[in-house]
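Retro notes, item 3 of 5
We never archived the inputs for the adenosine-5'-diphosphate complex last cycle. Fixing that now. Sequence and ligand:
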Amino acid sequence: MRVLEVASEVAPLAKTGGLADVLGALPSALSRLGCDVTVVLPAYREALDGRHGPIEPTGWEFDVAVGTGTRRATIWQSRLAGRHGGADVTVYLVGHPAYFDRPTLYGGAEAYGDNAERFIFFSRAVLDLASRFEQPYDVIHSHDWQTGIVPAYLKALPAAWPRLARARSVHTIHNMAYQGVFWHWDMLLTGLDWRHFHWRQMEHFGKLNLLKTGIVFADAVTTVSPTYAREIRSAPGGCGLEGTLASRGDALVGIVNGIDTDLWNPAADPHLPRPYGAADAVEGKRAAKRALAERVGRDPDDDRPLAAFVGRLAEQKGIGMVADVAARLAAGGRVRFFVLGTGDRHAEETLRRLAAAHPGAIDLVVGFDEGLAHLVQAAADMLLMPSLYEPCGLTQLYAMAYGTIPVVRSTGGLVDTVVDATPEALAAGRASGFLFEHADAGALAWGLERALELHADRPAWERLVAGVMHQDWSWARSAAAYRTLFERVVEAPPHGGRIRLSAVGAGAGAGGGASGEAGGDFDARDDRAEREA
Ligand code: ADP
Ligand code: GLC
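Structure as it came back at the time:
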């Protein structure tokens, strides 16, 4: 099966969050399962600078239609190292310096004004590139709003890419809150007929909506956990597109993300002072804690419990609750806090003020630092993740791999990956963290207090740590679910008919937190069939 993965981020070449991590690992996991996978990414400045892997020119250049004109695409090439014996995966990078030779991927506090044009160009260039290869692709797997128009191109402009006539499309939603909403005249950039600009296809309240476009046109739609797949079928989870998701029946599968166990493995992590496994987690984590303290100029012998936050300083992540709880508990002296993140200026300022007011009790590093993220995950005892919503979340999975116990709000993928440490779950060895319901600081404080209480019982805590470190969150199971989904989609009758997606959904690794819940039948009828009829 030939699979083309199309996305706006791929780790380590270009990353702002978990999307990059997924694209950095899933392709190799699929190739290990026998899929022939290619990945395509925009040739951003940060990807081309060669720091994250060798980049070579392919010598291929071609013109891509954008609006009434064309833009030149220059194709570069890189490779993602094969994992666990899997083959290396080829990554093509689509270059157009005016669009992608910029300091950041999407803009800063203000998004770049031409983001619609940049990603419409990229999506179209990907299909032009894919149809240059003699061997056709079976599945084109797009991700998030940036590539939401790919399924629409395949369905609505089939004549433009005859070699892709049999390719089926799968679109994965990583976050409903970012939809790629643009003014209606950007429809002209797409080259698609205005008849697609209506509320059942590309239009949403008068605007062009690229995530909706992907959801509507794809042969199958997935998101990154079963619980989130349920939540987005209604408000507020659907962020206004709940009707669109509902209009496709419950044909939406949730497949939990995995983690790249080559990169996130405390036993072989170059960012740690002392590698460790479940058997010597106490020593390994102590060494990491000392190294972290030294890094920020604190007492390395301070062995109070450390609660950390690693992530985007965004409303989604509940960073306000973290700040409130840190302010509340710092003075008590029983626990220390460490925040690594970047994003919202206001949140940065609040945290800076708190850190200054509580030296040694609250530490803050503002910035994006991959190595430091690894060190913090190893050094911390607890990871705080009070997300307002969380499609899947990877940081809690990294935490568990490093023997750090997640304290998380009961939402989305956090429900599917963390098992609350009730007395029963602890006794049965199934517990992996602490869950709380309400999106307020009191609830997070309660979750953290429960964790601190168990932490005081050293043998019980060490059993919990060893238990979470033994879980398997590698990509193997989830990649198998994607492959099954791809097979179903490819086997479905070419024009219309129903694709059965039930039983495709992948749940948890050994954590056992997730069930394999899936959608129902998926109506694959497309308007190509209507037009040809
Ligand atoms: P999201 O994609 O919503 O940001 P995830 O938990 O899925 O959340 O993934 C976040 C990824 O980004 C993880 O790899 C995490 O380590 C990384 N990350 C987030 N913020 C930072 C930061 N400031 N420095 C380093 N890595 C970060
Ligand atoms: C999004 C979500 C996060 C998820 C990631 C990868 O950024 O916010 O929950 O883990 O995508 O799928």
